[in-house]
Amino acid sequence: MGPFSIALVAIAARPKPFKTLFVVFGILKVAIAIAPLLLPLLTPLSITSLNSLIAANRGPMTRSALSILSFPFALALAAFVAFVASATLVAFVITVAFVALIIVALFTLIVALAVLAAALAVIITFAKR
Q1: For the chain, how big is the Rg over CA atoms in Å?
Q2: Tens digits of per-residue pLDDT, 38-56?
Q3: Backbone angles phi, psi at 57, to 5 degrees
Q4: Over the stretch 64-111, which tens digit does the pLDDT of each residue have?
Q5: Domain boundary assignment for the chain
Q6: CA–CA distances in Å: residue 97 to residues 14, 53, 55, 87, 93
Q7: How many CB atoms lie within 10 A of CB 35?
Q8: Backbone dihedral angles phi then psi of residue 43, each to the nearest 5 degrees
Q9: Which among 83, 92, 67, 108 is positioned nearest to 31, based on CA atoms?
Q10: CA distances to 14, 58, 108, 123, 126 from 112, in Å
Q11: Is the entire prediction scored with pTM above 0.85?
Q12: DSSP code at position 43
């Protein structure tokens, strides 16, 4: 069972908003776990040698599957993980902003009702005098 399936099984019984949040956290955990393994592939030396590695795969003697270098595939995987991690981060930030907006709106409503009650109390007090 991979990390994604474990995360999905763990959140199966949650309500819908929590499911989305837990899926986002699960994907973020997997991306964070994989990122250190892929960081050595993104050094300047490895990026400058990418052209020579791709060129090595184009020669007539390097057509077998065993001779194909795995660096371009690892780089593509790193790009995919970076994309998923950034999309996950954006989804998390949007979720947090939405929850914060709900909390701020709730407190704004409470303050508005308190101001209304205080205004009514002042009006009643002045009306009795």
Answers
A1: 28
A2: 655 555 555 555 555 555 5
A3: -80, -10
A4: 554 555 667 777 778 888 888 888 888 888 888 888 888 888 899 999
A5: 3-96
A6: 21, 44, 47, 15, 6
A7: 14
A8: -70, 155
A9: 83
A10: 34, 71, 6, 16, 21
A11: no
A12: S
